[in-house]
């Protein structure tokens, strides 16, 4: 599947104690327009998802071109992923990253196991366009260089 380009997003919520929690997903997709549903998949071995799964809401922060380092920082283990990250709280208190291009505020539907991953579906309640950027696209272990499109 490394030959299939994927968009990159950071899914985030807050713990019961109000601490921000987030992870990088490379499997984000639209499911339905009416109602507005989106989905992403999380590895069942994730150590971050168990900290997030009880939350009924989350944000999907779509990263723009040139934000590969932010993507990598949210997939690192054993670090404070929000250290040095500028964010504000959504209506439900979930992190909205200021450097995201697009942010979706979602309420979570029940998850289901599909193979070695969990499918998470969210119903979009709000959409915020923060920056008109080209997307960050992951392909064959790296990020596509879209510099030639940035000047168009």
What are the main properties of this structure?
152 residues; mainly beta; 8-stranded antiparallel beta sheet; 3-stranded antiparallel beta sheet; 13 strands; globular
Which blocks of ≥5 consecutive residues have pLDDT under 50?
none
What kind of sheet is the major sheet?
8 strands, antiparallel
Overall morphology:
globular
Instruction: State the helix count.
Output: 3
The fraction of residues assigned to DSSP E strands is over 45%
Radius of gyration: 15 Å
Order of helices and strands: EEEEEHEHEEEEEEEH
Report the span from N to C terminus. 30 Å
Total beta-strand segments: 13
What is the quaternary state of this protein? Answer: single chain
The chain-level structural class is mainly beta
Mean pLDDT: 88
Helix content: under 10%
Summarize the structure.
With 152 residues, the protein is mainly β. It has 3 helices and 13 strands; from the N terminus they run βββββαβαβββββββα.
Tell me about this structure.
This protein is 9% helix and 46% strand. The chain has 3 helices and 13 strands; from the N terminus they run βββββαβαβββββββα. The chain has helices spanning 49-52, 68-73, 147-150; strands at residues 6-7, 9-14, 20-25, 29-33, 36-43, 57-63, 87-89, 95-97, 100-108, 112-114, 117-129, 137-139, 142-143. β10 (112-114) and β11 form a beta hairpin. The N and C termini lie far apart (30 Å).
Write the layout of secondary structure elements.
Layout: E1 6-7, E2 9-14, E3 20-25, E4 29-33, E5 36-43, H1 49-52, E6 57-63, H2 68-73, E7 87-89, E8 95-97, E9 100-108, E10 112-114, E11 117-129, E12 137-139, E13 142-143, H3 147-150
Antiparallel strand pairs: 1-12, 2-3, 2-6, 4-5, 5-11, 6-9, 7-8, 9-11, 10-11, 12-13
